[in-house]
Amino acid sequence: MNKSVLKNKHFSIREYLVSSEIYSLKCSISVILAYFIAKIIVPEDLLSATFTAILCVKPTFYSGLMEGNDQLFASLLGAIITTLLLHFVGYNIFVMSFALFIVISICINRNWNNYLVVAIFSVLYVFIIPQQTELNTIIVRILAVLCGFFTASIINFIFSLVRYQSFLHFRTSYSLNIVFNEFSKTVKANKTADIQGLDKLYSSYENVYNKLSVFATEAYFIQKELDIRKSSEIKRKEAYNISRIIENLKMTVRYLQDITFISQRLAPKHEKIPKDWKNKIDEYWIEIEKKYSTIIDRFINKEFSFPVKLISFESEIIYDVTEKIKLADEIQKIIFTETLSIFMDFQQIIITLNNLEFYIIEYLKEDIFEN
After folding, report:
1. Cα dihedral angle (339, 344, 345, 349), rounded to 10 degrees?
2. Biggest distance spanned by C-alpha atoms of the chain
3. What's the pLDDT score for residue 297?
4. Chain segment 307-321, per-residue pLDDT in tens
5. What stretches in the chain show pLDDT beneath 70?
6. Cβ contacts of residue 63 below 8 Å, gap of 6+?
C-alpha cells in the first residue's frame, strides 16, 4: 500500500479525535458558564440557557453567531404564536396542537429548516412551563436563550483565535482522506464489476459530499470571521485556498459518484465494451490514483517546491467513442453512450485534481510563510 495512504489514514483518525475532544471541552465550558450566568440573570430557566449553549458551540465564532441568530428567531416565533393563542383562545391541549400546526406549517412553507425544532420546543415550553404571565414567559425564554448564546459565543471566539489554523489543516487532511478511501474502493469495484459494491459506493459518496459541504460552509464562515477581525491578507488567503480545496474535492466526489452509477449499469454487459476502451479506462484509474497519492504526500509533507506534473486527457478517445456511437445499433449505442459518459467524467476529474493540487500548493506556501 502507498505510504501516503497509510500516513493519511493515521492523520484522519487523529483529526477525528482532536475535533471530538475540542468539541467536548467547548461544550462543557459553555454549559458551566451558561449555568452560572443564567442562575444570576434568569434562574427560572436554567435548562434553556445550558441547552442553547450546547447548540451554539460551533467550530468558528461566525458560525456560532449564525446559530445564535437562528435560536433567537425560532424561540420568538414559537413563543409569540403560542402566547397569542393562549391569551385569546384559552389554555387547553387543542390550543397547543393548533400552535404546533401553525409553527410547523410556517417553517416548512418558508423553508426554515434551521428554525423548526427550536420553534417547536418554544411552543411546548410556553405551554408546559408557564411563568406568572404570558409576557413574562416570553421574556424568561428569550433571556435564557441569550445567556446560552452569549456564553457559547465567548468560548467560540476564544478557541477560534488560537485554533482556526489547526482546525483548517485537520479538516483538509480528513477531507482528502475520506475521498481517497472511497476512490480506492471505486477502483476495485470497477475492476471486478462488483454491482453490489458500486451500489453501496453511490450512497457512500452522497454521505461524503454532505460532509464536505459542511466543511465548505465552515471554511466560508472562517473567511467571514477573518474579514470581521480585519486579519492579515495571508490568513484570509489561506482560508480562501482551503475553501477552494474543499470545493474541488466536492466536484471530484460528484464525478466519481456518477462513474459508480454508470458502472453499475454497465457491469452486467461490460464484456461488450471494446477492449481498447476498457484498457484506456484502467489507464485513467492508475493515472488518477498516482495523482491523488502525490497530492496527499504533498499535503502531509508540506512540499510545495517540487514541480507539478499535470495529468492530460486524450480527447481523441472521446472523438473515437462518439464516432462509434453514430454507427452502432440500438443496444450498442446505449453501452457506448454510457462509456462515453465515463470518459467525460474522467476528463472532469483530471481537471479538478489539477486544480486541487494548485490550491494545495498555494495553501502550503501561505501556511509556511505565516509560521
Report:
1. 140
2. 82
3. 85
4. 666 667 778 888 888
5. 1-20, 163-165, 304-311, 367-371
6. 156, 217, 218, 221
